[in-house]
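Q: Hi! First time asking for a complex rather than a single chain. Here are the components, and I think there are three in total. Is that enough to go on?
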Amino acid sequence: MVFSFDLLINAVVSGILIGGFYAAVTSGVSLSFGILDIVNIAHPAFIILGSYIAYIANATLGIDPILAAIVMMPVFYVLGAAIYQVYYVSFEKRGQESLRGLAFFFGLLFITEVTLVLYFGVDYRYVEARYIGPSWHFAMLDIPLRILVPCLVSLVLTASLQIFLTRSFLGRAIMAVAQDQLALRLMAVDPIKIKRIAFGISIATASLAGAFLIIIQPVEPSVGREYIGRIFAICVLGGMGSLPGTVIAAMLLGIVESLTSTFYGPSWAPAVSFGFLLLTLAVRPAGLLGR
Amino acid sequence: MIAAGPSNANGASANGAAPALLEIENLGKRFGGFVALENISLSVPPGERLGLIGPNGSGKSTLVNCICGTLRNEQGTVQFGGQRLDGLQAHQRTHLGLARSFQLPRPFVSLTLADNIRIPLLYTVATRRGSHHAAHEIEDRCGALLCQVGLGDKARRLPRDLTQVEMRKLELARAMAAEPKLLIADEAMAGLTHSEIEDILSLLFRLNEQGVTIILIEHIMSAVMSFSRRLIVLVSGRKIADGMPDDVMRDPEVERAYLGQ
Amino acid sequence: MRTPVFLLIWLVICAAVFVAALALGNDYIFFAGYVVLQYVVLGTAWNILGGYCGYVNFGSAAFFALGAYSTVAIYRLITEHEFYRMPIPVLMLIGGVVSGIVGFGMGYLTLRLRGAFFAIATLALAVVLQTLVVNWDYVGGSRGAYIIRPEQIAPFGNYIRYLFLIMMLLAVAAITTARLIEHSRLGYGFASIRDDELAAEASGVPTLRLKLIATTISGALMGMAGAPFPYYIGYLQPSSTFGLDYAVNSIAMPLIGGTTSWVGPLIGALLLGSLQQIATVTISSAVNLLIVGFLLVIFVVIAPNGIIGLIHTYLQRKPEDFVGRRRVEAEMPGQVP
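A: Yes, that's all I need. Here is the structure of the assembled complex.
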């Protein structure tokens, strides 16, 4: 273990930037799990799907991956809305969401992952763009642009989502549906429709998150699995539905992961996020800024 | 506020009756910033028929949850049979002799009615009397309890086949199956017809005669008045009256807060 | 039907199956059958916590792998110190104890969490355990571990036949255990926890204690299934041994077969397991997970009561006839905690 201040600073900064990206990745789950109470364990699979779509657009048409992802967001939204409809009719209505709903998403995770394997194989795929490759050198800091750009756009995404949820009628209806469905009905708003929209938005964020992912690192279908723990750890630590909390928790996790990886080696990295999760669940299930 | 009869420090009534079965002192419960219960104190002697009334949201069910261990109260103590219940799990309190029915029925949906009754028999009664409880005795007891509440012919059915009213009866039967010393019936009579109310009331009277202390939580005033020997009124988390039913009903504060002018 | 009779019937069936497999003359049937039987144990074990109690465990792989790695650790110990080779049944017992203890520990840490959080916590625990093993060089770390499987063993001939037989006996033990639980006071307690934990507590059921029993038994059985695995596969690799694939299979098989009884995981494992073996041979092994994923989603949406439920609907009987068929056998009351 070689300790140097340079290494430390870079690890911390790198952690913060990755954390910004993690926040975007988790924002969808903050919506579906934190607010709607739907344990969509397949969310990482949709992110990987987004990665591959960005890859196709980039490899065949030369389009910037983030742009491609934004264009695909409506498609992902429709997919999310459709999935929620099936989920609602099959499980929520029957009150069986705990076991069978979970199994449903688990199945979707595998279907998505294996379909990608069968279609694309297990080779790592990556995208090319002008900001992938160069780094910013700033004093002792070495910031790769391929991490900085997704981090910045992630924060924009998360901020927009937060504004939407707190300022617009639809957004506030979504926040309300978690707390009082009856009150919503009395205001002539159909809670099921609201939840469908919210879940659609949740999956739509996965499209963008997928683009971020493949910019930051090469992707192959099973990469999603390591994100399951990260996402839920951040969601719980961040307070289940609080987007500001998600950002803080994401950066915290990013920093700890980065430090562990730099000074102890990357083979311990998976344990960090999942260990974080266990710790949070054991000690403070309400998270940092919990409701 | 009208108080109960004079009592001395350890909760026994001044006329020398047995010490209280249930003793609650300064119980308080908050949910975040919302104060659900504040400074609740009451004393229930064994064999009592206590009525608990109050508007919706006044904290009656919260009080029951705190007594039975489903919720933890931050302040105050609950004593049952002279033993403090702090830290005891709900099932341990049931083993001690405390039983309750839920205001919104919570049946075991994948089990038949008979099996619903069987659970408390297997896990509360059998553990008390020692482990040599023959299977057919339990079977008979299930049937008998279901008959007592008028569900005898539906023993093999599932709860989803029941009406709301029948589910409340099942709730009561399940609480009775635990052979409690103190039974808390939380709105067991909502929606029942007059004669069904009479049936449940006579059932509760019979139980009381056999020595079971009963706390009846109800909105049906006729039932409460005819059943209770003592009446407690809860409004906004506070106890505003505690005494003989007729006295309580004439208390101006009770009239104002609960009954209307 | 009393348990000894049940056991006898199944032992006879096992003998018949074994003889039939021998008669086929191709040892491949033992290799494939071993995997299917392994899933019978895993699915049954999972169902004890998942189907009976309603607590979804995503960490099946961890318990399975712990059993496998305890075998590896003992193997290393023996070859280094030249003791005699430990017989597999003993290894199973050890694997079972190790996984049982971990199951208990996991339960103690996580069972106070409500449904979804519990499931996620089990996943987290599995990954943490995996990371610990991958970083433990004694059992090979990320490079994996080699176990040399003996070629032959008297009187069976090829060693794989011996492994097959052992796994078959373990499968019988698993379904017998599940059935025993179902028909005992413990089974009623589990069902009450699954249906309404709050009401169960209020009825006097010591829910935490029962849940701990469930996780311990479930974990122990999974560990026992994992103990012979290094001998079966020869080379143990942490990424696949701890893989999510075990998790999805041990969840899918009971859900597809039916979660309310010991029959469900058995049917699910036999059908799904065989299907996967056939697919591996004819198409590719990646397709396995696709099949499992699809069947899981389809069944969970369309047939929530699994194959058992479908059979009963087909036979025009209502599922509650089956669900309600819990009998407390005369010799049982009060004996099971």
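A: Chain B has one domain: 22-259. Let me know if you'd like any chain examined more closely.
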